[in-house]
Specification:
six-stranded mixed β-sheet; single chain; alpha/beta
Amino acid sequence: MERKPLASCRRWHNGLSSGRQGPRASQGCDWVDLGGPVRHVDEHFERAASHGIEHHRRLPAALAGDFGHLPQGRLRAVQAVNAQLIDTYWHVGCHIVEFEQAGQARAEYGTALIQRLAIELGLRHGKGFSRSNLVYMRLFYLRYPASAPISQKPSHQLSWSHYVELLKIEDALERGFYEQQAQAERWSVPELKRQKAAALFLRLAASQDKAGILQWAQQGQVVERPADLLREPYVFEFLKIPEPHQVSETQLETLLCDHPQPFLLELGKGFTFVGRQYRVTINGTHHRVDLVFYHRILRCFVLIDLKLGEVQHHDIGQMNLYLGYFASEENVEGDNPPIGIILSRQKDELLVEYATYGMSSQLFVQKYQLYLPDREALRRELEDTLRAAGQRSPNGLE
């Protein structure tokens, strides 16, 4: 059956071939032109915004309140420009696939086509149409076809740089998870790169069943119960500790507190730092919790203890003591029971099972590591989980 390109793609093709600017985007799949405001838009807007900020700084303090709407106006302008760029690049990909390649996934004459288009579009429309960018625009259209459901359409909340990183992920489940998570947690591009490198999806999915994995791919991580907070393992590669180097528990704690942004990124959404070496006094005896956070979504304290080696049964008993204290002495009306997480380099599953018998379900023992995980080992574990559930391998879902 012959594949017919969309009407919007035909209009795009006609406008592009004749060198005329097409109509602006209206709604649905209608395309936007490559000329006018899109050309060099980032450079022009940044210069204008920078000039506006400096002008605002020079205003008398008495007048500053009259211009409180400027940040919101700038944000709306950035969002409008970003939406136009995303739509534009999708339609460029549509043109490449539907017309230049006649609807085929690959052109018979390979990279020569992309190189020729890069030269032509660069001469006609300026920056933004390098060969590498056109490769991603083509892939953008193939990954997000017009026939996809609305829920799977590209989001204007993410920038083109976000989508370039997402398009590098071949697995549809994994790509969907990072896309949803980047929107929900408002990740910057460097944060998205870090979470990809740290294999966040594979670490989270390894502990889920098939239904949970598919739900995460469609919705991102949803935090509704204490277990939703957990990673296995936690990865602290951002500390950049040389591999043979050994650190003490105090040094590890200090390094984590000295890197608050990546540490909170690794912990996940909703964590607010409360204190370090938080003192707990019981019958005149002082104890200290390594790190205390408050989770604004679950509305509860989260206590973290760091262990360099393998966790012992008395470590678990100590954390249970802390949980009891916080539930009785620190919680106020509206707070939920506290959560305790012991982070250790090694974990004896049988010892943990016996040591936590009959204890609070809010107490968890999780592993951490100082270096990036073995992605292939995590991927094999995920594939085994899906295979055992009768689900095809993630690579087969493309």
